[in-house]
Design goal:
This protein is α/β, with parallel strands linked by helices and 410 residues long. The protein contains 13 helices and 14 strands. Helices cover 33% and strands 19% of the residues. Strands 5-4-6-7-1-8-14-13-9-10 form a ten-stranded mixed sheet, with helices on both faces. A two-stranded antiparallel ribbon has the order 2-3. A two-stranded antiparallel sheet has the order 11-12. The model has no long low-confidence stretch (mean pLDDT 97).
């Protein structure tokens, strides 16, 4: 098995359109949630979202390419370019050994809705010829590969809210198995729109809180649903010897990955947390006994829904036993909202930054402990402590579970 390391990262998020701004805001406990501006919410029960702000696509692509791409592809291309530029990998790896593993939970939702409305209003002949290539979810991965001449494996992942973590984990396995020397991996979604918000509201997933500071409150007893977010996260994974040979800056080593399915329900997690706990255990198993639990940061999926948070708490206990109480845990969704397919990738970046700075970002808005969520969730303020290993866990509709692990370089 080849060793795999991280040599570049990029992010477009509600807390900033680069990784440094994102990380500084996470450490400071800044809330990226606010009133929805993308449409009139007068007839909606849900009023809040975590929107990307101050994104300029022209920093990353030509004006004509902006018109040709849905927002989700624009976000993906931007995050990928940041990560690739930071890593210096483009031109330093053979194109046939350079891959893309990038996913989206929903794809081009804005394009789908607008072209449907266009057809109803103006007829089928007026549907854009760009409709399909703008909408289909694999266009994030395909467009990144085209832009950066990555002719190795190109995979579009869709495991709902676990998409970003699954993409990074499967890229890790591909490099560890010798199928590529470098892969740009991550996730993206841009689906804050009237139809999607209405749909998530009606399936009882979103909070109806109008207080942005008490809307996304993972593990708090008052939690009532997640806050929809949007954005993209991208990471360059590289075979260790390849990175060393070109003197690349290495942020962390990928040390494990677990992937399971609850096989239980289309939306609700299995309350036994057997499969989700096994995904966490499979991820950390190679490092058990090599690091103390006090030196582990766990970036929880932590959506602020009643079922998710207590189930994930049980999953962590299933994986770690009594040591679960010694872990440093937090949910950065308390600040970013739920970025859907991008969540796992952005949270992987937060986990790596935590290792680099020895800082545990907080779970903000935490005021009322829940007896069913009784672990250390790092309430409200970041904690400075030595972190040797960080895990990032994701749970998705359909029962998808994924966990990715990182370690400081020794």
């Amino acid at each position: 098995m080849n060793r795999v390391v991280i040599t570049g990262m990029g992010a477009i998020t509600p807390l900033g359109c680069d990784t440094d701004t994102l990380w500084n805001n996470l450490k400071d406990g800044k809330c990226g949630i606010d009133a929805i501006t993308k449409f009139d919410t007068s007839d909606f029960k849900v009023k809040l979202a975590a929107e990307v702000k101050d994104f300029d696509p022209l920093l990353y692509m030509e004006k004509g390419d902006v018109r040709k791409n849905d927002r989700f592809v624009q976000y993906a291309l931007a995050a990928a370019k940041q990560a690739i530029d930071e890593s210096g990998i483009e031109g330093a790896v053979a194109s046939e050994r350079f891959g893309v593993y990038f996913g989206s939970g929903i794809g081009g939702f804005d394009t789908f809705v607008s072209e449907h409305d266009n057809m109803l209003a103006r007829g089928p002949q007026r549907v854009s010829p760009l409709f399909i290539p703008k909408m289909i979810p694999n266009m994030a991965a395909g467009s990144i590969a085209i832009k950066h001449h990555a002719k190795g494996p190109c995979i579009s992942v869709a495991t709902a809210c676990a998409t970003g973590t699954t993409a990074v984990g499967e890229a890790y396995r591909a490099i560890a198995g010798g199928f590529a020397d470098a892969i740009i991996a991550g996730g993206v979604d841009a689906a804050i729109s009237p139809l999607s918000v209405a749909a998530f509201t009606n399936c009882m997933a979103l909070t109806e809180s109008t207080d942005k500071n008490a809307a996304s409150i993972p593990f708090d007893k008052r939690r009532s649903g997640f806050v929809m977010g949007e954005g993209a996260g991208a990471l360059v994974l590289e075979e260790y010897e390849h990175a060393v040979s070109r003197s690349a800056k290495i942020y962390a080593e990928v040390i494990g990955y677990g992937s399971t399915c609850d096989a239980h329900h289309v939306t609700a997690p299995d309350p036994s947390a057997e499969a989700s706990g096994r995904a966490i255990y499979d991820c950390i198993k190679p490092y058990l006994g090599k690091v103390s639990p006090e030196e582990i940061y766990f970036n929880a999926h932590g959506t602020s829904t009643p079922l998710n948070d207590k189930t994930e708490t049980q999953a962590i206990k299933n994986a770690f036993g009594d040591d679960a109480y010694k872990l440093h845990i937090s949910s950065t969704k308390s600040m970013t909202g739920h970025l859907l397919g991008a969540a796992g990738a952005v949270e992987a970046i937060a986990s790596i930054k935590a290792i680099c700075d020895n800082v545990v970002p907080p779970t903000i808005g935490f005021k009322e402990p829940d007896e069913e969520c009784d672990l250390n969730y790092t309430p409200n303020k970041a904690v400075q402590t030595e972190i040797k290993v960080a895990l990032s866990s994701s749970l998705g509709f359909g029962g998808h579970n994924a966990c990715i692990g990182f370690a400081a370089m020794e």
